[in-house]
């Protein structure tokens, strides 16, 4: 299944914005990875409250960003750009927090957050 194909099939899409579709796809993945990392952090014996909060906040922002990015009926460019910018910053902060821990789940989450932020950075100039 491909989100790229789904967006491309929309009647209002004349030309697929590949960068935006990729950012949406990775934001969906990032939301799930952050949720999983927060759950794993809650099972750790050390105090992981800040990491859990960062991961859950990031998951929510990524999920909202992905949803806005795949909507093609009408347009709300200012809101989409603001969400992409928020997603970039939230992913950066989550990656920084996860990088403070030696848990493998945190390492994977930080990596996904960095990838998501980079994809959103690439997509941002294509939103017009």
From TrEMBL:
<dbReference type="InterPro" id="IPR044543">
    <property type="entry name" value="YHJQ-like"/>
</dbReference>
<dbReference type="Pfam" id="PF03860">
    <property type="entry name" value="Csp"/>
</dbReference>
<protein>
    <submittedName>
        <fullName>Four-helix bundle copper-binding protein</fullName>
    </submittedName>
</protein>
<dbReference type="InterPro" id="IPR005560">
    <property type="entry name" value="Csp_YhjQ"/>
</dbReference>
